[in-house]
Design goal:
The protein is mainly α. Helix content is 41%, strand content 4%.
Length: 204
């Protein structure tokens, strides 16, 4: 397993590899994913990328990485690969930047037992306690997969905010929260989505 925070999780590698394909030539993807034929022929880059991601995430980890490596090889090799933050860079962040955990392996926890989940979570604990020197008080389930028993485990481990999925806003003061993904090209778009506005007024 790669050292913590020296290699990105597989979704970051996937999107970086796709962005490096010359003229977004996705024939390589159709060849690697026969079950995903024709998904690359229409739609925006964001839609195509998300569709490819959804197909790859259903594969076993070894096949998933093999597909991403092939896409990386087909891209432009003279560019530096995407890189996650190092431990030194994270510890240098100001106190105003909140850092949480997002799983040790970034695999879905939907079908794993509590003991298997604990093994994955201990990777996060080791990173925070022994390398970052920060308390682990926020945990977001990777890929949105979890079991109710995992929530009890996280509570007992001292996690104060547990983030699920849902793409909706909520009130504060509760430990289990839906997760809201915020994105945009302008400052106003970020602010609007942060308070739950997802459509222009004319579309509402």
């Amino acid at each position: 397993m790669p050292p913590p925070l020296t290699h990105p999780v597989w979704p970051a590698r996937l999107y970086d590899a796709l962005s490096r394909l010359e003229c977004w030539d996705l024939n390589i993807v159709d060849g690697l994913l026969p079950e995903a034929q024709n998904i690359t022929s229409s739609g925006s880059r964001e839609h195509v990328g998300f569709t490819i991601y959804n197909h790859i995430r259903q594969s076993p980890a070894n096949k998933r990485v093999a597909v991403i490596e092939k896409i990386e090889e087909a891209g432009r090799p003279n560019l530096d690969p995407v890189r996650a933050l190092t431990i030194k860079e994270i510890t240098a962040l100001p106190g105003s930047v909140h850092v949480g955990a997002h799983g040790g392996t970034h695999e879905s926890m939907a079908l794993v037992s509590v003991s298997e989940f604990e093994t994955d979570f201990k990777m996060c604990q080791d990173l925070f306690e022994n390398h970052l020197g920060r308390p682990l008080v926020t945990y977001a389930f990777p890929l949105g997969g979890y079991r109710i028993e995992h929530l009890d485990f996280l509570h007992s481990a001292g996690v104060e905010q547990i983030l699920l999925v849902g793409e909706r806003t909520t009130k504060g003061g509760v430990p289990v929260l839906p997760r809201l993904t915020i994105g945009g090209g302008l400052r106003g778009q970020f602010l609007a989505k942060s308070v739950g506005v997802t459509k222009r007024p004319a579309d509402v």
